[in-house]
Amino acid sequence: MLRWRLQCKLWLQRRLVRSSNQTHNQQGDRISLFSFQITSNVLLYLMKMKILDSFYSLLKPNWVVLDLGAGEGKQARHMKELGVKVVAVDSKTPKEKDDSISWNILPIQEWVIQLNETDVFDAILARNIFQFFDKNMVEKELIPILSKHLKTGGILAIETFYDEPVPPFDRPFNSLWDEEELKKNFIGWEIISSGMEKEHTTDLSGSFRDFYKTGLLVKKS
């Protein structure tokens, strides 16, 4: 599915360039402009950040996956259904705790420093946690620890924010991240997918908010 998306993206990019050039031809001005607009909209839709979907599609049965900042365990349970072994970490106990998932109820920064040298993961999901930490701490401590405990060839998915939600959460953010700020921490890694997008959707309480998300999916070389 990921390969299909990449092929579609390349095809649409070529169409976009051709359509842009055609807009300069007076005879087909209206048709070309319409084609340009349609192609642009489809391209933007396919390029919208689908980090989780891509991450899930790369998981393999019996992989050991770390869900860092698991919250209520929605992603952890979904990954378990995909046939992987999930280690979930969060400071709060979920309302519905699945015993087939290895839960660790500890603050993230406390849990990661307790990892042993032999603790290695095939994949790591770090979703909606970076913004709650100081940027220097994330870059100098958290990311190096995650890198150390991710196997070579393993994948890491990050979702965070480039701006405060509207309306804002009660818990303030300590850092904001744009796409390039995330990427610079993974020089030498394979960038599978990345992006920034605005999304109008409900939060966990059911209230609508505007979310300004940044995502990155990388493979350790």
Furnish the topology, listing elements before pairings.
Layout: H1 2-22, H2 29-47, H3 51-58, E1 64-68, H4 74-81, E2 85-90, E3 102-105, H5 108-112, E4 121-127, H6 135-148, E5 150-166, H7 179-183, E6 190-202, E7 208-219
Parallel strand pairs: 1-2, 1-4, 2-3, 4-5
Antiparallel strand pairs: 5-7, 6-7
Helix pairs in contact: 1-2
Characteristic key phrases:
221 residues, alpha/beta, Rossmann fold, 2 domains, seven-stranded mixed β-sheet, 7 helices
Could you characterize the architecture of this molecule?
The protein has a 7-stranded mixed β-sheet with strand order 3-2-1-4-5-7-6. The protein is α/β, with parallel strands linked by helices. The chain is globular. It folds into 2 domains: 2-47; 51-219, Rossmann fold, CATH 3.40.50. β4, α6 (135-148) and β5 form a beta-alpha-beta unit. α1 (2-22) packs antiparallel against α2. It has helices at 2-22, 29-47, 51-58, 74-81, 108-112, 135-148, 179-183, and strands spanning 64-68, 85-90, 102-105, 121-127, 150-166, 190-202, 208-219. The two termini are 22 Å apart.
